[in-house]
Amino acid sequence: MLDNGCVRMPRIRVSKVTGNVYQIRVDDVETRFFEGIWEIPEGVTYNAYLVDTGEKRILIDTVKSRYALEFLEALRGILDPRDIDAIIVQHSEPDHSGAFPIIYEAAGKPKVYAHPIAKSIIESEYGVRLEKYEAVRDDTVVDVGDGKLVMALVPWLHWPDTIITFYPEEGLLFTCDVFGVYGVLPHIDDAGLSSSEWALYERYMRKYFANIVGAYRDWVVKNLEKLEAKNWNFSIIAPGHGLVIRKRIGEVLEAYRAWGSRRLNPRKATIIYSTMYGAVEKAALYAAERLAETGFEVHIYGSNDEKGIALGDVLGDAIDSRILVLGVPVYDGNIHPITRLLVDLLCEKVAAGQVTSIISSYGWGPVAKRIVAEKLEKCGFRVAGVIEARGALPANDVDKLIENMIAAK
Amino acid sequence: MLDNGCVRMPRIRVSKVTGNVYQIRVDDVETRFFEGIWEIPEGVTYNAYLVDTGEKRILIDTVKSRYALEFLEALRGILDPRDIDAIIVQHSEPDHSGAFPIIYEAAGKPKVYAHPIAKSIIESEYGVRLEKYEAVRDDTVVDVGDGKLVMALVPWLHWPDTIITFYPEEGLLFTCDVFGVYGVLPHIDDAGLSSSEWALYERYMRKYFANIVGAYRDWVVKNLEKLEAKNWNFSIIAPGHGLVIRKRIGEVLEAYRAWGSRRLNPRKATIIYSTMYGAVEKAALYAAERLAETGFEVHIYGSNDEKGIALGDVLGDAIDSRILVLGVPVYDGNIHPITRLLVDLLCEKVAAGQVTSIISSYGWGPVAKRIVAEKLEKCGFRVAGVIEARGALPANDVDKLIENMIAAK
């Protein structure tokens, strides 16, 4: 029982991915803010994997610390943890390494494979010493008896320590946060997903990509090229979050290629606004209607005093929208603090030459053009127009703005 | 019935302040974010006033637009709105002017007294024309038959249009947002408050002050001097938010003097942190214990992936704390976006020479000193020390930090 009288019910599922590989997955529907900022009502899973060939038993990653004991119990359902021969830490972020200290102890301090940065972080953060340690480099090999695991460094996806692991005998690629995703779906893999479920999955994947990997898009492109050059023949992706991908390997790779190279969806528009008196809201809704009539897929996010803005979702839709409309409230002679945060995040995570307009209604005086337009232009958006007015924003002006955005080359 | 199946129950109360003056108060427990950013689980009231001498009927301010119809109904319980002779708009912010257009119409477009900026905002935002309008200046007088109302401009408390109104015959000062406060208390005035209730009220008042007025503290001092020079002999303060103040006029004025002039509480410490692995949290809690042992009143705010940081409350406690400890998480090689927002707000609203320390635990590399310490120092905090470490923060270092802060002149 927790303090609030609720019972905590983590769901751990163990399933077979291939003959020699188990997945141990935690379904986390408790975390409200991933990374302390991204709202995830859809939840998130943490996936660890156990390669057990009978001869060798290798654990790949663990889970968040609060699920450590349940994770250990699930592991015990498969084997005696002391039989684990080695642990591969593909990435030292706490959602995958938090349970490490407990599992490491329970397993009798086996050999650990990790990037030197991951070693240093784990030792200093968790106060453990990795007694038998091998620094992972490109093509580091772990013998698993009837085969081998081969590793590759994929730096900055999304930490400097990130590695992925290939299991050629089973055609399996373990990717940790790469191809990661939010959401807790009832499925284990993508084989049984309907097309609408897949659309939702892709949406969660794009949101995760924008939030977590967005700042490192150049590295996505570089690492995909590196992966292709390896010619690893894999038919299953086993990520650290979400479903095992069996059917849509091509789609997943293509999505990463598109988002990494800043490709935009030419028929998609995202509108983000906040309103004080309602003037900006009225203009934003009007713009949404006009864009929808013209055949755009329109996503609209509004915030006010009853609901905040879901920053994670906003970024997920902004990253591939050709058209962006930003409704900017004025506050204390500046732009609203939350809008400042939003503009910072747009710049850092998703700027990709989106054709962008700014609409702003002010009481004392205009500030949106000076502050927001300049900043967005500098960081990689293409500002196509700004409407600023005291009070209502004329529909005519919004019409012209939309025409300009659609016509922009 | 609302969409979510809940019934909206605004509470409007009408009460007599003096023989000729009614208060019409809305208790808003629905707004989650005041100004779209400050969390207010304690709610907020909107207070309008009606001066009715039998001869003249003057309405001072209205309420938020969503309560306009209920407000009109309450008004109808006192008089026929068409008998209203004039409306004074002390401040055009929507929480006091939102219901204006409906009331203005229902009252048959009476004369309006307001600052020229308020006139311009109301006309452009609400699309109404003030047909009979008088621009308020210092000492503008409104005749109420058996007496008069006298007005004074108090610019930048907290908008350029803000005015206050004195009713000498009743010893009443109407102050709109000045001396405003969050919270919905069951009382109508402060006469029956216990000392612990008053302490809570003062806390809500300080939070409101920091959030709403903090950026204009120099104007608080100027306007208080202006008010004193007027020698208005008032015995009741009738604010736009909160309780009517009858008993503690001196305390309220003194609080504004203290906060406006950046006076700090020498025995108060506020600790604000966010944590990824727990290292910063451990050090923050340790610092809190040490400071409490030394006799400090300690306030501590922590955020993680299950709860955000209540920015409004943080500012309310930081504004008069002599000691401030900031636990800074590192994110994407920068400080966490929410911490960036927090540092911006601390600088803009509450910087007052607080003796400040920064504690930061990093994985890849240190950034807190370079980014946060510099910014805080520049904007008016006195940075007494920075601890940065990979992993755990040594208790010895925290001890030294606290000694330095306490010893700082």
UniProtKB/TrEMBL annotation, chains A, B:
Which top-rank group of organisms is this from?
A: Archaea
- Gene3D superfamilies under this entry? 3.40.50.360, Ribonuclease Z/Hydroxyacylglutathione hydrolase-like
Stored Pfam families: ODP (PF19583)
* Gene Ontology molecular function: FMN binding
Q: Which PROSITE patterns match?
A: FLAVODOXIN_LIKE
Flavodoxin-like domain spans which residues?
Answer: 269-409
| Alphabetical list of InterPro entries matching this protein | Flavodoxin/NO_synth, Flavoprotein-like_sf, Metallo-B-lactamas, ODP_dom, RibonucZ/Hydroxyglut_hydro
Q: Which PANTHER family match?
A: ANAEROBIC NITRIC OXIDE REDUCTASE FLAVORUBREDOXIN
The protein, known as: Flavodoxin/nitric oxide synthase
What lineage is this protein's organism placed in? Archaea, Thermoproteota, Thermoprotei, Desulfurococcales, Pyrodictiaceae
